[in-house]
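Tutorial, part two.
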Amino acid sequence: MTTKGRCTVAGLADSGSNPDVDLLYDINGLAKEAPHWFDRVMEFVGEWGLLLVMVLLVLWCWWGVRRRGGDDAASSVASLIWAPLAAAVAVLVNVPIRGFVERPRPFVDHEGLEVLIGGKSDYSFVSDHSTLMMAMAVGLFLANRKLGLVGIGLALLGGFCRVYMGVHYPTDVVGGFALGTAVVLLLSPLAVALLSPVVRAVERSPRVGWLVRADRAAGRGKVLPGARSEAEAEERDLAA
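Running the prediction step on this input gives:
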């Protein structure tokens, strides 16, 4: 391990009197007192459940945007597409950060933790789950304020779960929140500017325009009254 490997953030784990470690024990201590079934629920919620709900929120928002339609449908859909893309970009940015900090998981340096899920052998700072959740939540907020606030609430709950499960320090979670938010906000203008023309092209397409606006799908099978009357006249002439 390099001398710069464990920098300031990693060094927080060295003292049990550190507020970060104290808060870790306080939150994780709840898992020791909780019933076994509740810990299993928190394990599922913290590992997969909240991520699934976040994806469903984004899809729900997209469904509402396409049904509402309007001139701003393309820009709204572009913002929604940016939400999962931003989450992926933020996780990629986290790869070199983890390699530089090299902070071990809490249960490596501290005894007595109730670790609810095994197999976590990678570094701890920053939390991928917290980064993903907050990036998607902030991206959703840019497209829809109400659903975005719900998403941010879910991200905060997800961060709590990661500490409760004993797999992250509180500062890992806070770092993930900061990273996810920064990537979304800093790159959002460029991302939406690049995505909007693509989404508008999709919107104009007679085949896949329904992905952006529901009225495109409704309009595909309609026959204009004038065209219908002309077709009926032609049928009458042929019959005569």
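The mean pLDDT is 82. In part three we will examine how such features are distributed along the chain.
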